[in-house]
Specification:
Methylamine Dehydrogenase, Chain H; about 5% helix; 5 helices; 54 strands; 4-stranded antiparallel sheet; mainly beta
C-alpha cells in the first residue's frame, strides 16, 4: 500500500514537474520529502531527476531486509521514543548524557530523559521543520536550525526561548557550537553565518557554493568544516573567516561532516553512498568506507575516536573501525524495505552519548532509537500515541479521540472512564466526526479511506474508498445525509452516508496541495475547505461550485472575493470553522494568527494575535459567543467571537494542541495534544476539570 502511494506521488510529479518545482520552493517544510521521493535522496539528485525525468537515480537501490536481525534482537527491547507523527531529522546528547534532544519536521524540538525515556520538554516557536539541533558545551543552551530560516537558542532547564537569530535567506540545515560555547555556526544555501552566542549578533558570513548541509567545529575551535551541495568539504579559519582548504573526493553532494575528538581526522558522508576519512592537517584522503546501499545522511565519531557511526537512507546504521576502515556491525530495526515508502526508514541523524556506550538515531519512521554500542542491540521500548482529533457526541455524554496508533477511543465524559476502543487497522486516525444523531462516527485515516462506525455497537459499518492519499479531515452535513472529506490528494469528496457512494468530487485548490480542513455551514448549503496553498475555498454544496476564495497577502485592506484578484493568506491554513449562525468563518494559520471572515462578503473582519506558534485548530461554541484555538505553542486560547478580544489562555499540555472541541452545552472544551492526553476544561473559569490519558506501552 505504501509502495503504491510512492508510485502515485511519482506519477503526479512527472506529470506536473513545473508546478511541483514552484510548490517545492514555496513550501520548504516538505521540500526534503519531495526531493527524497523524486531523487531517492539529496537535493542535487532530486533536482537533476526533475529535469531528466528521473533517469539518473542510483541503480540497484534496495532496502535491507529485517529477517536477519530479528533473531538477534528477539530477546532485547528497543527504546524507541515515539515523537511527533513526522520525520525526526536531528538528534543530540547533552554533554552529561542525561538528556537527548530531537528535532522534527513538525516544527518542534523535544527534550527526553535518557534514563527513563520520559519527555521533559517540548520546545515550540519555530514556524517550520527543524533540521538541526546542538547543545552548548556547558549543556545549558540548545540551538536549533529550521526551515523557517532562523536559528533559535533555548534554555535547556526551563525550555524557554532565549533568543532568535535571524538573517539567513534560506532554510538552516545545520548548527554547531564552538568548543568554548561562545560562537555558533549555522549553514544554509550558499552561506554560513557565525554568531556571538552571548549577544546574538552576527560576527561574519562565509560564502559557499551551493547548499551547506552540515557544519562542525574542530575540537580546538580554530577550524570550521562545511559539507556542501557542490560535492566538497571546506575548512575555514574561524578567526579570519578565510578558506584554508577544499577537500574534493565525493562524486555528489556531502550531507554530513564530523571531527574526531583529537581533531586530526574529519569524516564526511554523501549522496554517493560513501564515507570518507580525511587528514585535517594535510587535506589528504585517508580512506573511503563503502557499504551503504543509499545516501549517507549522518556520521559521528565515538568519544574515543575508534568507532565511526553512519546513518543512511538504506534504513541502517553502521559501525566502522576508524583505524582499519573495516565494517564492525550493521544495525537494522527500521521499517524501510522495498515495499514501503522510500522515506519510511531513512536514518537522518546519529549521535554518541558522552560515555560512548549508547548511540541515538533519528529517522523518518518518526522514532528515536537508543542502541547499545557494544552489542548493537536496542535497549527497550517506550511507545504511545499522539491524539490527532477529538469530538463530543451530540448529547455531550461521550468524548471520542483518534490517534496515530490506529485506534479511536470513546470515553464517558462524566466519569472519564474508557467505554470502548475501535481498531482502525489502516494507519493513524487524522480526523473524526459524529453524525448529528450521534449514531455514526466517521474517521479519516492514513490508509486513504474514510470509515463509518456504529457508535452503539462499536462496529465498522462501511469503508469509503476513492481518495488516493491520506484523508486529513471529515465533516457531516447537518442533515446527516452527506459526509465531506478532504485529502492530501488535493480533492474534497462528498459521500452519501446511507449508501457509501461518492456523490461528487470538488477540486479547486492547486495540484500537489494538501486539503487540511473541511467544515459545513449550519444550513448545510456551503462547505469551506482550508489548504496548504494558503487559501480558504467556499463551495456551494448543491451545485458543487466554487463560490469564494478567501485569500490575503496583507494584514490591511479587503480580501479577494468572486470576480476580484485574489491575494494569499500568509502560511498554510490548518483549520476552518463556521460560526453557528453561518455568517462568520474562522481560520487557524501557521503564521500564529487566527483570521475571522465575513462569509457573505468574503472580507476579513478581524485578525487575532496572541499565540506564539502556528494555530492548528479552531472551534466556535454552540452559542457563537466564544472562539477557541489550539496551537503549536502548547496552549488553548479563548476569544470573544464578537469583538475578537482575548479572554483567557488554558495552559497545561506539554506538547502541541492539535484538536479542540466544545461540548454541546458550551460549558466544556476538550483539547487533544501530542503529549498523549486529552484535557477537559471549564470554559467559564478556564480551570482544568480532568485529564484523560491515552498512553500505552508495548514491546517488540
Amino acid at each position: 500500500m505504501r509502495f503504491r502511494k510512492t508510485l502515485i506521488y511519482l506519477i503526479l510529479a512527472m506529470g506536473s514537474v513545473f508546478a511541483l518545482s514552484i510548490w517545492v520552493l514555496h513550501y520548504p517544510s516538505t521540500r526534503d520529502r519531495i526531493r527524497r521521493l523524486v531523487g531517492g535522496g539529496g537535493e542535487s539528485g532530486a533536482e537533476r531527476n526533475e529535469l531528466r525525468g528521473i533517469n539518473d537515480a542510483p541503480a540497484g537501490d534496495s532496502f535491507p531486509g529485517l529477517q536477519g536481525a530479528a533473531a538477534s534482537i528477539a530477546h532485547a527491547q528497543e527504546q524507541a521514543l515515539s515523537t511527533y507523527g513526522d520525520f525526526v531529522d536531528s538528534v543530540a546528547f547533552s554533554p552529561d548524557g542525561r538528556t537527548l534532544a530531537s528535532g522534527s519536521a513538525n516544527s518542534t524540538i523535544k527534550l527526553w530523559d535518557v534514563a527513563t525515556g520520559a519527555l521533559k520538554h517540548t520546545l515550540s516557536g519555530h514556524s517550520n521543520g527543524i533540521y538541526s539541533v546542538a547543545f552548548s558545551p556547558d549543556g545549558r543552551t540548545l540551538a536549533s536550525g529550521s526551515v523557517d530560516m532562523t536559528v533559535k537558542l533555548w534554555d535547556v532547564a526551563t525550555g524557554a526561548l532565549k533568543q532568535t537569530l535571524s538573517g539567513h535567506t534560506y532554510y538552516v540545515e545545520s548548527v554547531a557550537f564552538s568548543p568554548d560555547g561562545r560562537t555558533l555556526a549555522s549553514g544554509c544555501w550558499e552561506e554560513m553565518k557565525v554568531w556571538d552566542v552571548a549577544t546574538g549578533k552576527l560576527k561574519q558570513t562565509l560564502s559557499v557554493q551551493g547548499e551547506v548541509n552540515s557544519v562542525a567545529f574542530s575540537p580546538d575551535g580554530r577550524t570550521l568544516a562545511s559539507g556542501s551541495l557542490d560535492k566538497t568539504i571546506k575548512l575555514w579559519d574561524v578567526a579570519t573567516g578565510k578558506l584554508k582548504q577544499t577537500l574534493s573526493g565525493h562524486s555528489d553532494q556531502v550531507f554530513s561532516v564530523a571531527f574526531s575528538r583529537d581533531g586530526r581526522t574529519l569524516a564526511s558522508g554523501g549522496w554517493d553512498r560513501k564515507i570518507q576519512l580525511w587528514d585535517v592537517a594535510t587535506g589528504a584522503l585517508k580512506q573511503t568506507l563503502s557499504g551503504h546501499a543509499k545516501a549517507v545522511r549522518a556520521v559521528a565519531f565515538s568519544p574515543d575516536g575508534r568507532t565511526l557511526a553512519s546513518g543512511s537512507e538504506d534504513s541502517t546504521v553502521k559501525f566502522w573501525d576508524v583505524g582499519t576502515g573495516a565494517l564492525k556491525q550493521t544495525l537494522r530495526g527500521y521499517r524501510g524495505d522495498i515495499n514501503s515508502d522510500v522515506f519510511s526508514g531513512e536514518v537522518n541523524s546519529v549521535a554518541f552519548s558522552p560515555d560512548g556506550r549508547t548511540l541515538a538515531s533519528g529517522s523518518n519512521d518518526q522514532k528515536i532509537r537508543l542502541w547499545d554500542v557494544a552489542t548493537g542491540a536496542p535497549n527497550q521500548i517506550f511507545s504511545g500515541h499522539s491524539n490527532y482529533s477529538v469530538a463530543f457526541s451530540p448529547n455531550g455524554r461521550t468524548l471520542a479521540w483518534g490517534s496515530e496508533d490506529d485506534t479511536i477511543r470513546l470515553c464517558d465524559v462524566a466519569t472519564g472512564k474508557l467505554r470502548q476502543t475501535l481498531s482502525v487497522h489502516g494507519g493513524g486516525v487524522l480526523s473524526i466526526a459524529f453524525s448529528l444523531n450521534g449514531r455514526t462516527l466517521a474517521s479519516a485515516d492514513e490508509d486513504d479511506t474514510i470509515k463509518l462506525w456504529d457508535v452503539a455497537m462499536g462496529k465498522l459499518k462501511q469503508t469509503l474508498s476513492g481518495h488516493i492519499l491520506p484523508v486529513t479531515s471529515v465533516a457531516f452535513n447537518p442533515d446527516g445525509r452527506t459526509l465531506a472529506s478532504g485529502s492530501e490528494d488535493d480533492t474534497i469528496r462528498l459521500w452519501d452516508v446511507a449508501t457509501g457512494k461518492l456523490e461528487q468530487t470538488l477540486k479547486g485548490h492547486g495540484s500537489w496541495v494538501k486539503v487540511t480542513s473541511v467544515a459545513f455551514s449550519p444550513d448545510g448549503r456551503k462547505l469551506a475547505s482550508g489548504s496548504r496553498d494558503e487559501t480558504i475555498e467556499v463551495w456551494d454544496v448543491p451545485k458543487g461550485a466554487l463560490v469564494q476564495k478567501l485569500t490575503s497577502g496583507s494584514e490591511d485592506g479587503p480580501l479577494g472575493t468572486p470576480g476580484g484578484e485574489p491575494l494569499r493568506v500568509p502560511y498554510e491554513v490548518n483549520s476552518v470553522a463556521f460560526s453557528p449562525d453561518g455568517r462568520t468563518l474562522a481560520s487557524g494559520n501557521s503564521d500564529e494568527k487566527i483570521r475571522v471572515w465575513d462569509v457573505t462578503t468574503g472580507k476579513r473582519k478581524q485578525t487575532l494575535r496572541e499565540h506564539n506558534g502556528g494555530v492548528l485548530s479552531v472551534a466556535f461554541s454552540r452559542d457563537g459567543g466564544t472562539l477557541a484555538s489550539g496551537s503549536l505553542d502548547m496552549t488553548v486560547m479563548l476569544w470573544d467571537a464578537t469583538t475578537g478580544a482575548w479572554k483567557r489562555t488554558l495552559s497545561g499540555h506539554s506538547s502541541y494542541v492539535s484538536s479542540i472541541a466544545f461540548s454541546p452545552d458550551g460549558r466544556t472544551l476538550a483539547s487533544g495534544s501530542d503529549d498523549r492526553t486529552i484535557k477537559l476544561w471549564d470554559v467559564a473559569t478556564g480551570k482544568l476539570k480532568q485529564t484523560v490519558s491515552g498512553q500505552s506501552r508495548s514491546s517488540p
